[in-house]
């Protein structure tokens, strides 16, 4: 493949699905910008797809905002959310009538089917039951990852989706990130020859770790899901997807090293608001939520334009897990985790998830017989061993307003767009992340966790 062909607009058929990335402009001699092109399988919708959202927290807001932006394509007609503030906010955004507002997901299914689809963005341990019920009633489903907390539950959902002939799209949004789309295209087109190995790194960023996996909803793996699934099934999935090889074996190591009671600073208390050494702590809840007020603050459901905002937040920290000392929680999630994976055709991969970084944004290196790819989601660099030339590709993404820091590289809304078209056309082939294709990375995660706990190399067995 010569250089001219490499730089042409690349089109890749993924089963029946077509994803394109269109070159936009030449920035300099060896640098190009690009974006995801229009899926040619999309058709004008006769009417908007209707959906009910279960869980109006962070991810529910992201997917719901697509409907708010494009109401002719997707209309949210119902919501189930036990937190009154979130229920009210979501209902107001989408003009949901009172009769279609529910406290729990169970309440939704006491009614006959009244929408085309269900968006499941409830906590991890509340994915399985509503998903199974929705399938029984004939809904198509947009399912936040992970699919479910156990291997059996994942397999049950897959089996019922096939039996009922319903669409279940798993929110592996990195498959829609222009950065990873380009990486897969280049590999498929032979830009680096035969793939030999891949190194993938997910720096969680130290505050994100303390927020989500020490204080937050996913701090206890027994109550939710192991961190390899809760955080990194995205990464296991994207490694498999970009190299397009079946996984065979996996081995993992990792532990909870730092966020433990014995590492608490002398003089520290259980709550940051009463702690005498809080000013010197990098994980101070007072500094992160009350003073910096970053996007992580959304979990505290602080009303807009509230008087004495800082004082309001401090009060909430007094009674919330988000105000507790990171060294004195009942957390058990590893803060560092490494895996090695054997794929088909003798391709190997290593993946490292690390809490203790000052930055986020996934880093990937793909080594091939004729070249390599190196990237950090902001740019992807191709080196050709034959010509010794370097080419840089810079993705242009449309981030969801207010959610720019989620690290998904612009894939969120592109996934929803394909889901809406798939439901409208009754054609799951428009999606790259149906449950049939996405379950493999979950099985990799379950086997990785078993390997980490038992010190064994685990075989990965796909559903027959």
TrEMBL record:
InterPro entries per the UniProt record, alphabetical: Gfo/Idh/MocA-like_OxRdtase_C (IPR004104), Gfo/Idh/MocA-like_OxRdtase_N (IPR000683), Gfo/Idh/MocA_Oxidoreductases (IPR051450), NAD(P)-bd_dom_sf (IPR036291)
Gfo/Idh/MocA-like oxidoreductase N-terminal domain sequence ranges: 54-171
SUPFAM superfamilies: Glyceraldehyde-3-phosphate dehydrogenase-like, C-terminal domain, NAD(P)-binding Rossmann-fold domains
Top-level division of the source organism's lineage: Bacteria
Residue ranges constituting the Gfo/Idh/MocA-like oxidoreductase C-terminal domain according to the UniProt record: 184-459
GO molecular function: nucleotide binding
Protein name: Gfo/Idh/MocA family oxidoreductase
Organism of this sequence: Pedobacter chitinilyticus
């Amino acid at each position: 493949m010569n250089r001219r062909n490499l730089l042409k607009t690349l089109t890749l058929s993924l089963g029946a699905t077509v994803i394109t990335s269109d070159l936009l402009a030449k920035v300099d001699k060896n640098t190009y910008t690009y974006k995801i092109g229009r899926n040619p399988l999309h058709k004008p919708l006769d009417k908007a797809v209707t959906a009910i959202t279960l869980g109006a927290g962070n991810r529910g807001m992201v997917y719901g905002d697509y409907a708010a932006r494009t109401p002719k394509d997707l209309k949210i007609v119902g919501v189930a959310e036990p937190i009154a503030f979130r229920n009210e906010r979501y209902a107001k955004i989408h003009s949901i009538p009172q009769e279609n507002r529910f406290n729990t997901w169970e309440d939704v299914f006491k009614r006959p089917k009244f929408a085309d689809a269900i968006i499941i963005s409830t906590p991890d341990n509340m994915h399985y039951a509503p998903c199974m019920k929705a399938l029984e009633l004939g809904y198509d489903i947009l399912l936040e990852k992970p699919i479910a907390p156990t291997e059996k539950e994942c397999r049950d959902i897959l089996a019922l989706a096939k039996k009922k002939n319903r669409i279940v799209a798993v929110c592996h949004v990195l498959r829609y990130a222009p950065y990873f789309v380009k990486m897969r295209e280049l590999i498929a087109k032979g830009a680096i020859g035969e793939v030999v190995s891949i190194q993938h790194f997910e720096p969680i960023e130290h505050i994100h770790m303390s927020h989500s996996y020490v204080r937050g909803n996913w701090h206890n793996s027994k109550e939710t899901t192991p961190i390899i699934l809760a955080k990194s099934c995205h990464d296991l999935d994207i490694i498999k997807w970009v190299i397009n090889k079946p996984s065979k074996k996996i081995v993992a190591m990792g532990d909870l090293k730092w966020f433990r009671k014995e590492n608490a600073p002398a003089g520290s208390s259980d709550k940051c608001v009463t702690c005498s050494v809080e000013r010197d702590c990098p994980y101070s809840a007072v500094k992160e939520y009350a003073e910096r007020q970053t996007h992580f603050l959304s979990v505290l459901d602080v009303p807009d334009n509230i008087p004495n905002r800082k004082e309001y937040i401090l009060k909430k920290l007094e009674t919330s897990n988000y105000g507790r000392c990171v060294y004195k929680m009942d957390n058990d999630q590893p803060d560092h985790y490494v895996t090695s994976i054997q794929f088909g055709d003798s391709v190997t991969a290593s993946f490292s998830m690390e809490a203790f970084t000052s930055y986020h944004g996934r880093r990937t290196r793909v080594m091939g017989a004729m070249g390599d790819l190196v990237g950090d989601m902001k740019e992807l660099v191709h080196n050709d061993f034959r010509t010794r030339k370097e080419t840089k590709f810079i993705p242009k993404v449309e981030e969801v307003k207010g959610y720019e820091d989620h690290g998904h590289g612009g894939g969120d809304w592109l996934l929803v767009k394909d889901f809406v078209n798939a439901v409208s056309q009754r054609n799951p082939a428009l999606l790259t992340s149906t449950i049939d294709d996405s379950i493999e990375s979950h099985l990799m995660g379950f086997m990785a966790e078993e390997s980490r706990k038992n010190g064994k190399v685990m075989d990965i067995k796909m559903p027959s």
